[in-house]
Structure formats: structure tokens, C-alpha cells
Design brief:
Strand content: 25-35%
Largest sheet: 8 strands, mixed
Order of helices and strands: EHEEHEEHEHEEHEEEEHEEHEEHEEEH
CATH class of the domain at 1-53 and 141-212 and 317-359: Alpha Beta
Number of strands: 19
Structural class: alpha+beta
Bound molecules: flavin-adenine dinucleotide
Distance between the termini: 25 Å
Radius of gyration: 21 Å
Length: about 350
Amino acid sequence: MTRDADIVVVGAGITGASTARALAQAGRGVLLVEQFEPGHDRGSSHGTSRIFRLSYPDQHFVRLAQGALQTWRELEAECGEQLIVPTGALDFGPVALENARAMAASGVRHELLTDAQVRSRWPISADPGEPILFHPDAGVILAGRAWEVLIAGAVDAGAALIEDVRVTGIAEERGAVRVTTSGEDIVARACVVAAGAWGRGLLDGAGVELSVIPTRETVTYFDLPGALELPPIIDDAVPDPEEHGLRRPGLINYALAAPGRGLKAGLHHAGPPTDPDDVGEVDEAVVRWVSTWAARRYPGLDAEPIASETCIYTNTADESFVLERHGRIVVASVCSGHGFKFAPFFGRTLAGLARDASG
Ligand SMILES: Cc1cc2nc3c(=O)[nH]c(=O)nc-3n(C[C@H](O)[C@H](O)[C@H](O)COP(=O)(O)OP(=O)(O)OC[C@H]3O[C@@H](n4cnc5c(N)ncnc54)[C@H](O)[C@@H]3O)c2cc1C
């Protein structure tokens, strides 16, 4: 059986949901195809929270984040709900100074704090002399709720969500694109591949190279009452690598509130390359490292984790994103471990590419 469609979006993570919503709201016919149950925890978009920040050392990302914040504000106004809790965010270590320079050049509000100022504002510890940056326009994205709002917006605008159907092949043919699935085939005018860690394998078959490496990252949760009143932390002042047997360059700790759970903390880019179809295994060395770090930053925190889980990063070599059009196929990889905040913004870009691709 073959079904006709206007535009197929592969993958109902935050990128596919954002793109499907933008397309459907522009009046396009959308089939959003997801291989698992929507909201599953095997990709990159699950969990209750993500950091929204404007602090980047590269002005290009600061400006993108400014655009993304505007898109979140519009989304919040449309759905009548707060999707980013305005806590501000703290950066610790040398990166704080680099970020402050890029933010100053882009006119983003920020202040450099002393350790005493940090301790007087929040139950967070800081060492004398370490660079500390605070910017008030950051916050905690209510990620699970944001995903629900975007999916509901797509469906309300007419998109059809097809669950538990895997796309197995994509091929351009005679002014259309054939999308082969574990159910019926679909012939569409264009196809957007927002398949996260599965995208590279799927696109290989279509002759499109997606140069990304999926890694499996470990996230750990701690009991911390009042966590949602605290700013998320990015910290490149890490514990002694020798202490935990982790010798990976460029490690950065992060922590943020996880509504309903407490504090969520992790080590950015610490995970090994992975096959997204493997069962995720928590890296106990990362759990120990993060527990040590969190106990130092949050006085009084019970360093015994209450839970740990894995989540997949899909990484480009330069920790950036992929938004490309190849004929009638649009390719999206909005991850590298920091893409959630940009997804609604890039969803509009991807919708524009799909409109062009559909001829
Ligand atoms: C631990 C962790 C912490 C993070 N922290 C932050 C943060 O603080 N701030 C931030 O901005 N970003 C953060 N990110 C990054 C952010 O979560 C990702 O950028 C984002 O979730 C990527 O979403 P996606 O939709 O592109 O991919 P995914 O969520 O993986 O969605 C892809 C979807 O496609 C489906 N799919 C794949 N192949 C097929 C197929 N063949 N057929 C049908 N369906 C298919 C998958 O099942 C999946 O549902 C973090 C990521 C992780 C893992």
C-alpha cells in the first residue's frame, strides 16, 4: 500500500515536533512519523528540563540564542504557559570570562560576580578568585511540557502523528520522495529527516552524508529541595581527573533543576560513541565524578544519587548543528548536546527548507 502526502517529517523529538508544528501552522499537510511511542526515553529529548542560556564564547551562538529566546517567548504567548523558568544561569571557570566578552559584544545582560556575592544570593559554593558569570535572561526549559505543547500545536494545526512506525528508507523518485516504512510506503513532495542519532544510518541509504557521531551520556539526579529556585550551572572548574580515572579533555560539569525529581547533573561530552539501538548503560565513573562535583557546589546536598539514566548526544565535529537541503530531502541535526534551546527557532528554518524542497 502507498499513501500520498505533502511533507513527511521523520522523528517526533523536539526538532521534528517543532518543524511539524511550523509546517502545519503554515497550512502544509504533515505526516510526523515516529518509530517508538511519543515521549520515549531512547533518543535525546526526554526528561523534564534543559538549560536555556545565552552564554557562549562564540558571538554567533549568542545571537542564535537571542533569536531562540524570542521564539520561546512567542511560543509561551501562544500557549499561555511559562515554558522557561527565569532563574538566570551561572558559569564558573575560565569559560565565564570568554562568555562575558561575547555577551558584551552582543548586548546581553550579564554580570561578573565574586565568590561572596554568589554565596549571598544562593546556597551554592564558590572559591575566591574563580571567574563567575551570571546572566539573568537564562533559565530552566520545562522540556517535557515544551515537547507536549509543540506536538499538540502540530496536531491541532492538522499534522498527523504516526506512532510506532519506523522509516526504513528514503529515496527521491520522479519529482517526489518515497518514504519506505515498517507500515505503508509514503510518496511525498518533501521529507524532513529529524531522526537524531538514527539520522546518519537512515540518510546513508538515500546517498546523503550526515557527518555526526552519537555518544551515550550519563545523567544523574540528586534530592535537592528548592532546586527550581537555583540558576543552572555550567562549570569548567572540574574535580581532579586522576581522582575518578576519567581522562577526557574539555570536560564541563552542568547542573539544573529537574522538576519533580530534584537536581539533574552531568558531565558534558563524557560519553562513548554508541549505537542508538543499544540498551543504554549508565557510566558509573561519571556518576561518581558528578556526585563529587555536586557535593562541592551545593553545600548540604546528599551526594547519594537518587537515579541515573542515559541520553544520546548526536555530535558534529564543531559542536554545531546541521540544517541542509538535498533536493527534496531536508536534513536536521540539532543536538551536539546543546540543541534543545534552539529547536523551536530552527523548526521554522527547517519548515522553510521543506517548503523550498517541495517544489
Ligand atoms: C544529557 C543531555 C543533556 C542535554 N542538555 C541540554 C541543555 O541543557 N540545553 C539544550 O539546549 N540542549 C540540551 N541537550 C540537547 C538536546 O536535548 C538535543 O539537542 C535535542 O533533544 C535533540 O532533539 P532531536 O529531536 O533532534 O533528537 P531526538 O530527541 O533523538 O529525536 C529524534 C526522534 O526520531 C525518531 N526516529 C529516529 N529514526 C527514526 C526512523 N527511522 N523512523 C521513525 N522515527 C525515527 C527517534 O525515535 C526520536 O524520537 C541535552 C541532551 C542530552 C542527551
